[in-house]
């Protein structure tokens, strides 16, 4: 659900915390005029926390920050399979969730959430190196090793550090809309959006430069959404056969080429609905969907709402 009130974000630093995993939510949600978030970095207790990779963190807040927060991020940490976090941490996470806070794990932070029991019976993911261990240690968790992140509503998990960016941008899209998420992605010099269903790790039997070529084709297509974009047109731009393009595209994005084009068009429509006063019919033409009827049909199918309701929701209070 979109929000206009200040959202309080706690980043919980556990012993052995990975520096990138800590820094990603702290930076993405850092307080600024365009972002209705306030961030506190905390630990099991105030003071020095020994991190991973030779770093340490001096945190001003303890677990009281979890009672304050609307979103709690648990960054990944070293040796998550050896022992659970302190019981006080587990209890504080459960209490925050019971109070209505969203819990979001980056990488091996999923082990801390699994220790609460809140992932039992739910899909979840973690860094690919630890997926089997998470499944072994917590057999009630439905571990999916083939995705970048999983949004299970009030509990979210992601794979390695870069996937933490994807998860944060996903949360921004849900809270503030596509325009705010894309702005944050540009600030981070990150991809605007990657599907949560994209594979974490795919063994390659073709040279990596092909992936760069496909990325260039996606960028090319984003600037031509109002043009006819068929599989053949995209494959021709990438200079590969449609069959090769289609297979590799699914590996790289989690979508077929035509699914990706449709979602890109819907995302562009969302941004125009949020930021412009153009009519639904005009926007439909702008994004290559032809008519307002066509835009409404695909909007309802993909997002479960109408363009008009979406516009009211994300411009309310502005």
Q: What strand line-up does the widest sheet have?
A: 2-1-5-6-10-9
Mean pLDDT: 88
Describe the biggest sheet? 6 strands, mixed
Helical percentage: 40-55%
Strand content: 5-15%
The helix/strand series, from N terminus to C terminus, equals: EHEEEHEHEHEHEEEHHHHHHHHH
**Secondary structure tally, helices:** 14
The geometry reads as globular
What is the first-to-last residue Cα distance?
Answer: 16 Å
From the helix content, strand content and strand pairing, which structural class follows? Answer: alpha/beta
Unreliable runs: 196-208
Radius of gyration: 21 Å
Number of strands: 10
List the defining traits of the structure above.
single chain; 318 residues; alpha/beta; six-stranded mixed β-sheet; two-stranded antiparallel sheet; 10 strands; 12% strand; globular
SSE arrangement:
Blueprint: E1 7-12, H1 19-28, E2 37-42, E3 47-50, E4 56-59, H2 64-68, E5 71-74, H3 87-99, E6 102-105, H4 109-115, E7 123-124, H5 131-137, E8 142-143, E9 149-151, E10 155-158, H6 161-176, H7 178-188, H8 209-222, H9 231-238, H10 242-253, H11 257-275, H12 280-286, H13 292-303, H14 307-315
Parallel strand pairs: 1-2, 1-5, 5-6, 6-10, 7-8
Antiparallel strand pairs: 3-4, 9-10
Helix pairs in contact: 1-6, 6-7, 8-9, 9-10, 11-13, 11-14, 12-13
């Amino acid at each position: 659900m979109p929000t206009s009130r200040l959202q309080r974000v706690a980043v919980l630093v556990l012993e052995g915390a990975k520096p990138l995993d800590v820094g990603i939510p702290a930076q993405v949600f850092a307080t600024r005029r365009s972002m209705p978030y306030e961030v506190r970095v905390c630990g099991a207790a105030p003071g020095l926390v020994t991190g991973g990779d030779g770093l340490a963190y001096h945190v001003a807040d303890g677990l009281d920050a979890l009672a304050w927060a609307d979103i709690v991020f648990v960054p990944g940490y070293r040796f998550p399979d050896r022992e659970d976090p302190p019981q006080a941490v587990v209890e504080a996470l459960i209490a925050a969730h019971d109070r209505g806070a969203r819990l979001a794990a980056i990488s091996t932070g999923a082990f801390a959430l699994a220790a609460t029991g809140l992932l039992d019976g739910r899909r979840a993911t973690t860094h690919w190196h630890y997926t089997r261990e998470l499944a072994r240690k917590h057999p009630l968790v439905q571990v999916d090793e083939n995705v970048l992140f999983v949004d299970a509503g009030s509990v979210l998990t992601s794979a390695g550090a870069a996937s933490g960016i994807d998860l944060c941008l996903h949360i921004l899209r849900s809270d503030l809309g596509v325009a705010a998420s894309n702005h944050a992605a540009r600030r981070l010099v990150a991809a605007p959006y990657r599907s949560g269903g994209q594979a974490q790790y795919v063994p390659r039997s073709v040279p990596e430069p092909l992936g760069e070529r496909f990325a260039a084709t996606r960028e090319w297509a984003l600037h031509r959404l109002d043009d006819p974009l068929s599989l053949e047109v995209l494959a021709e731009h990438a200079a590969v056969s449609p069959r090769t393009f289609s297979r590799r595209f699914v590996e790289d994005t989690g979508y077929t080429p035509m699914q990706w084009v449709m979602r890109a068009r819907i995302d562009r429509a969302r941004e125009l609905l949020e930021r412009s006063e153009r009519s639904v019919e005009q926007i439909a033409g702008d994004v290559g969907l032809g008519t307002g009827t066509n835009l409404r049909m695909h909007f309802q199918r993909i997002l479960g709402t109408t363009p008009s309701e979406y516009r009211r929701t994300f411009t309310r209070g502005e």
